[in-house]
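Record type: monomer structure entry
Structure origin: computed from sequence
Chain ID: A
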Amino acid sequence: MKPKACYEQVPTEVLLPFLEELLNEGKSVNMTVTGNSMMPLLRDRMDSVVLKKPETVRKFDIVLYVQDRGKAILHRIVKCGPEGYMIVGDNQIALDGPIKPSQIKAVVPGFYRNGRYISCKTWWCRVYAFVWGYGRLFRRLLLPLVRFGGRIVKRMERLETKDEVDS
C-alpha cells in the first residue's frame, strides 16, 4: 500500500535498533514529530527534530526515551534526581518517571520549522524551556503569553531578515 504522504510511519520496534545504531556511529538523525505532546514548541507533522546521542543530559533538555513498554517518546526533562529523570511533554501536566539514564536514547539539540533550523540553545528557546518547565501547573494560563511572545519573536526575526536584505 502506497503511503498517503511523502513519509511513512515506522513502528517503534523496527525504528529503535536502526536509530540506536546510527546514533552510536556518531551520526545525527532528523525525524518528523508526530503527536501533540510537545505543542506549542513542536508541531505535529510540521516540525522535525534533530536527534543526537546524549553525552550529558540536563534539566529542560528535550530527549527521546523508551518507556518500559517499548514505546519511544519525545519529552522534556523537568526534574533530575538520584532515582532518575522526571519527564513531561510541553502540552501535558502529568509527569513520567522516574526515567533511568539507560532509557534515554537521544537528545534534541535543535529542530526544523519551515525548512529553517532552530537551535534549542537560542535565547528564546531557553526562556521558553525555563518558563514551561517550572510553570507546568500553570500552562493553561501561560499558553496565551507564549503565543504572544512567539508572535513578537517572529516579527523580530522578520525585521532582522529585512535589515539584512536592505543592507
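Annotation 1: Confidence is low (pLDDT under 50) at residues 1-5.
Annotation 2: Residues 60 and 105 are 16 Å apart (CA to CA).
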